[in-house]
Amino acid sequence: MPELPEVETLRRALLPLVINKTCTALKFYRKDIRFPIPKSTLRNRFANQTVSKIQRNGKYLLLQVAQGAMLLHLGMSGHVSRHTSMVPREKHTHAIFRFGSKTCLHFVDPRRFGCILWVPRNGKHPLLDKMGPDPFSSDANAKTLKGSAKNCRVPVKTFIMDARRIAGIGNIYACESLFRAGIHPQRKSGRITFAEWARLISCMRSTLQDSIRAGGTTLRDFFDPSGNAGYYATKLSVYGKEGEPCPKCKTQISRTVHAGRSTFFCKTCQPTRSRAVVKVKRRVF
Ligand SMILES: [Zn+2]
Question: Residue 134 domain-assigned?
Fold first, then answer.
C-alpha cells in the first residue's frame, strides 16, 4: 500500500516531468474509481494548462494549475507509470495524462481505492477540509496534538492513524514511530504528555524522512510499469518482526491487533505507562 514516503517520492519523481509543462491530453477509461471522476471539469480546467507546482498533503497529491488543482490519491494499490509515447495501457489503467509531447503518465489502480478529483483555486474540498495537518507541517506540533487528544480514550496508535488528527500515517509508520519514541501503542492518547507528543512528532518525521531518503536512491526506477518498483523496502525495526529481537534491547518483538490491524512493539522499550509516571511511582513506594 502506498504510504506517505512513496507518495512524496512520486511527487519528486513527477517534478521534472510536469512542472512548467502543459497537459496536452487527458484520457479516462472509467466513470469512477473510489469517487466519480469529474471528467468534464478536468478537461475544461486542467487540460491545456501549465502545472506550476505539485503539493503533497498527507497521501494526496495536488497538481496545481491556474484555476485549481488535480487531486490524486493512490488508494491501496495505485501507482503511476511513465511512458514516452502513447503505448497500449496495461490492465487497471484508469486514466492517461499526457504532458508536452513526450511524457505519458498512466494512473493504474487494480483495487480502485484511489481517486482523481478536482480542487478549485480556493483549495476547498471535502476530503481535504476534514484532514489534520501533514506530519511535516508546522501545524503538526505537540501543542496542537495534545489539544486535539484532550480527554481522548482512543489508543495513541489509532489516534495517529486517524487522518482527521494527523494526515498520512499508515500502519507501518505508526508502529515504527511509536517504537522510536518509546511509547506503547495502546496507551490512551489523552494521557500522552506534551514531551511525549513532541518526541513522537519528531520520531514520525525522522521515520518518514529515512524512508523518503531510501526511496530517493531508487527514484530513477520509480516508474516501473511492473507496478512494484518504487515501493522500496524500508529498514524496519518492529513492523512484521514478531518474535525477532528488539534492535535496542533484544526483547522479543510482540504483536497484537488494534482496530483490525497488526501492531508490532517492544514491551520493554515501549512501557504501558509514561516513563515520567513510572519514575514518580517508584519514588513513592
Ligand atoms: Zn526493546
Answer: no
